[in-house]
Amino acid sequence: MTETYAHLSNNAVYSATIVFTLAMIAHVAEWALARQLTAPLAGPLQRALVPARTAGSGVVDGAVTGTSAADAAGSGDAHAAAARDGDDLERSDRFGRIGFGLTVLGFLVLAVGVVFRGIAAQRVPWGNMYEFSITGCLAVCAAYIVMVRKYDTRWLGLLVTGFLVIVLGIAVIVLYRPLTPLVPALHSYWLMIHVSSAAVAGGAYTVGALASVLYLLRRRLERKAVEHPDLPRTGFLWRTPPAEAIDRVAYRVHAFAFPLWTFAVMCGAIWAQYAWGRFWGWDPKEVWAFITWVAYAAYLHARATAGWQGRSAAYVALLGYATFLFNFVGINLFGSGLHSYAGM
Amino acid sequence: MPHPSDQEVVPAADQPEQATADQAAAGPATGGASTSPHGSAPALRPLEFLRWAWRQLTSMRTALILLFLLAIAAIPGSLIPQDRVDPSAVLLFEQRHPAIAPLFRHIGMFNVYSSTWFSAIYLLLFVSLLGCIIPRLRVYLRSARARPPKAPRNLARLSAYDTWTTDAGVDEEVERARTLLRGQRRRVEVYPSDGGTVVSAEKGYLREAGNLVFHVAVLVVLVGFAVTGLFGFKGSVAVIAGQGFSDTLTQYDDFTPGARFNPDGLTPFSFTVRHFHVTYDTSGAGIGTPLTFDAALSVTDHPGAAPYPYDLQVNHPLQIGGTSVFLVGHGYAPVITVRDGDGHVAYSGPVIFLPQDGSFTSFGVIKAPDAQPAQLGFEGYFFPTARLGPGATPYSAFPAADNPVLSLVGYHGDLGLDSGLPQSVYVLDKSHLTPFKAAAGRPRALLLREGQTVELANGMGSVRFDGLKTWVKLQINDQPGKVIPLVGVLAAIAGLLCSLFIRPRRTWVRVRGEGRRTVVEVAALDRASGGDPGAHVRQVAEALRPAEPKEPQ
Q1: Among B520, B526, B527, B525, which Cα is nearest to B542's?
Q2: Which of B315, B323, B476, B484 to mutate to test the interface with A (most CBs of A within 10 A)?
Q3: For residues A221 and A71, which has the higher predicted lDDT (pLDDT)?
Q4: Which of B185, B75, B169 is nearest to B518 (CA)?
Q5: CB contact (8 A) between residue B26 and residue A185
Q6: ipTM value of the model?
Q7: pTM of the model
Q8: Contact A154 B2 (CB under 8 A)
């Protein structure tokens, strides 16, 4: 029985990897088809860009980029070019929708993989790095889907699916380990609370980092457009929301993740008290959880500090994510310490 | 449509506050906190300098830099072994890097988290935090009692705005608006305003309160850790199954008291480790992984009390008063009898061997200082499930004692115990010892199974492997006030949630008579981004507007 579930789990994880790959390809097509597309309604956009730098508000672009394709094409008075744009837009958008649909499918398949892994092991599937990776991917995917539903952030599709494919690929090829029981230190309900909150926070941090990357790209594009107003505004990036709106999305995800991360670290400390007899012992894992916490605290502060908003704050967020990744990869693989069972 | 519903993400336009709105989200947003240009100031008098330094220290930018410094300063402690985490790894590091180790020792690299520089950073950060919080606390207390502000002259300029006319009287409309807004748990105030009346409402005071609570709570956590560290203690002891422990200083293998710890405060409990049981995974990929640890204790809370049994497990510590006993390790203690050349027993009893790997290949030392004609010493390995590897070197294949074998090298001479220098029981000082050699001239490894005896060369005695016991490593500590950091963290999270998700909002309803009609205007302003004041205005308008809408705006 255990064997069956373990096999089903493995197959589900493979399948999810393939589905995410297809989703990524769809998103690549979405970007590629938008390559020749000009930004919708160049006029108002330009107007919006310039005051955006002074008033600090990207509302007008938001409204504009939110305009439907039909409006965008319609305003061109049925120019041939506009018609062609409309076609490409329609196709690009269709691939985007396909990509998102596949992502949802991949999420479901991966969820089956994670759950079956747990059933096969007769415990929560959080005993080693392979299991952490597939659970982490599930969390990233969940965070992304929630955000698409809530804030319509499908423009993150390519980055998110790309991330999922890479991490799941590594998990399946490099990190895979057959089922093993948990060491006694992990026999605690705190495992569930601590790891699940850390995983969800990690998923949100990941999506936040990807949004920050996109923000930096879009911001650079807008800067360039202001410096060289004559350059054609084509490509998928021009169809994403304005930089400020992306920044706000990134902030929201981080603002969600940070208290959860605080909670996860706190649960870890309480658990450490039960398992090892101290809250906090500066074990390498604890050190880096603390560093991540401090880095994201710095991000939240940077957003409120003159001269640090925008680009600098985004870099701080990416720095925080780098410390998070190092804690997960570096410390698990090279570190010793009490969390060493978390490795391979 | 690439991203049609951005109204959630994108705030309303024309809000000058918008740029600064997020400031409240993350931290100190007081104007005084930001650095002011002091570049070309002439020489400052001491008081001015102090004031300038204080302002610099409590500025947001400094706090940010200190946060970065704190993160960077924490890194070395995770890469370089630490005295308090793994002392043996520090020793190894010092042996491997003799050139750099003294320097590291000097600058506290083996003790990062209690080093001067690390402490300096976090203390500065806390001073900066206090300097930031105290003025904000004052501002907040004042604003918390303040009434909602009067309305801007031109409400129509706000992005979230609606207006209509009605036949109802001014007073009636004012009363309805006031009831409505108060029902939404807003603070409401009614002001006369040019030619009419304004109902002014405000909500979301908890945002700044949460922010302040978070920062104070971080301080509470630190104070809590300091208190537990000062008044508590941490000790450990290895107890062989069958033996006991009573809570007095002399019984600890190591004992780290807090600076204010009172040794008389030790709880007078005692216990016996009756037996210790481990189970291992015997098949599959996780072979050799421990599954359960159980130490059966017989505990006496205080002298004279009736003993009671306790099953000590990982994640399941024993609590006696404020003191906790944790199971943190285990190992094997072979029972060994050493007889000297005269046939007298020079040593007999269990010897703690320290595990070296996951299969519990363990290292140990036996010292028999009373042996005649020469003192005898042994060091070597214990293999719980011995197998012979290439070159007939034994290794352990499994952590359980399925085929226990001892491999010892014997020495004779002077153990060095009389030199007066303290010696570790786990180290054999071989400077005045000579190994027993095999025919080939190499030190002879004595292989012993349970019950076997091996005679030493030249009639110097014998060594016998009598049997096998286990030992458990117990950590015993007392952390008075450990509830303080817990309360602190919970308060911090609650404060954080308030400061990140509560959005202060001001709502105004202006009612004025215009001829025989009454004009009602509704507007709202968010003081933090991310909300949707437009939806709020629509909702208020829906509730107040008469049933037959005149002309939708």
Answers
A1: B520
A2: B315
A3: A221
A4: B169
A5: no
A6: 0.81
A7: 0.81
A8: yes
